[in-house]
Amino acid sequence: MTESVYAQREAFRRLLGREQGSRLKDPGGRLAVAIVYPNSYRVGMSNLGFHQLYRLLNRYGDTFAERFFYMGPGREVASVEQFRRLDEFDLVLFSISYELDYLNIPRLLNSAGIPPLASNRGEGFPLIIAGGACIMANPAPVASYFDALAIGEAEVLLRPALEAVIDAGGSSKDRLKSLAGVSGMMVPGYTHEPVKRRYLENLDEEPCHTAVVAPDAEFGHMYMLEVERGCGRNCRFCMVNRVFSPLRFRSLAGLLGAAEEGLEHCKTIGLVGPVVSAHPQAEELVRGIAGMGGRVAISSLAVKPVSEGLFNALVAAGANSITLAPEAGSFQLRKNIGKQISGAEILEAVAKAYSAGFKALKLYFMAGLPGEQEEDIIALKDLVVECGSIYRRRSLSINIAPFVPKPFTDFEREPMAPLELIEKRFEYLKKELAGRKVHVKLESPAWSRVQAVLSRGDGRLAPVMASLARPTLTAWRRGLEAAGIHDEEYLGSIPEGGELPWRKLVEQ
Ligand code: SF4
């Protein structure tokens, strides 16, 4: 064993030692499933979808699952649980939530000695399958890496897919043929597209919460609990209300039961959902958790309507910070993107957050939105300054991300704003907000463009990603150039009637 492999093994042992809930199941006779998050342990173990896969697979009697993460270049690809190699498993399931993680997929497979393109693999390799939000939205850029793709939620697809594999016997070909018979599974060469997305109708049938308490994860100090799936609003840039539709809530009783269990492991329950305050019993839930002696952290709240009762309950339950997402600076632009909230309503929400006692306020905005003018950016600056004067002597931070057009949204045909324009707007905001005690975080315009290419991308991008020695912007540009691809092909507006690759593959 080389020194670095020994060190990595030790690092995994330490991680495992600090975790609660990880399983070291005896593989004997069971289907061996590797679950892979193509980013770090810290990020992957903060993803509830990944926890859900682990929980389901280890609950079934006929499977056992071990976790893999992308550990960086030159690092051994091995399971956290028992340091097994990827090719020792029957199935390898990738959970993909973020487009930029695509770049790690071929590198991960290569490092494990597995050819990244499915067409270069034959019998003798595990079946490699992908699922997750990105795959449900547009699997096209990465489809050729996988033997099959799950178009839907794990709670409804995983069990039938496993049964199809187990029943089919040992050969990859037979397993794929059998998988193709599972509705919601896309098996290139065997199924007809578009594949209709499948979802769990009644969320209470399957709880969704932290499966392994992992103190080394980004949200490792809290027990994450999903309260809802989907969103009832119609923001025109947002994929959540399409890819996770319909909107479904978990019952209060189920949530309180899961929270009680969670409090045995962590002091804080993290409520997760697109707009947690939309849950009809959000306040009762927060008060119930506080009544059991727990603290609450919350991922997102609506600006409108504001419930003072909920704000007060959250502060009483120890929540220090609150996140609101006005998304744009002017009312006109907010209206254009489907967020009909006036400036006065935003300021009112901020004032109520302040008087409720939240120590920190975080606001999310976008730049480069369709129809955005310079005045909208000035309005954004003015709005932040006004929020700052309400939130004086406490912490105010803003996060501004370039608008990225996403599949299946109303803006799926809109162009991405030019790089120079975004950079100019960011420069202006940085300058104007400097010295105002506002912490400003600007997402990288250059990487957001890569994300936009991948988000609306097609199969031509798979070999480009596979060719990159390192996932840097320079390597990406060179890779595109070598393949004769100009990123503007993916970033410009798509005329009505122009092809949308994702709509040929997936039906929402
Ligand atoms: S941006 Fe938020 S509120 Fe709007 S549709 Fe998406 S999840 Fe819902």
- Give, in spatial order, the strands making up the sheet with the most strands: 2-1-3-4-5-6
CATH C-level label of the largest domain: Alpha Beta
Count of DSSP-assigned helices:
20
Report strand %.
15-25%
The number of E-state strands comes to: 17
- Uncertain spans: none
State Rg: 23 Å
Distance between the termini: 48 Å
Overall mean pLDDT score?
A: 96
The CATH topology of the largest domain: Rossmann fold
Helix content: 25-40%
Named once each, the bound ligands are:
iron/sulfur cluster
CATH architecture of the largest domain: 3-Layer(aba) Sandwich
Count of separate structural domains: 3
Shape: globular
The major pleated sheet works out as: 6 strands, mixed
Category by helix and strand content = alpha/beta
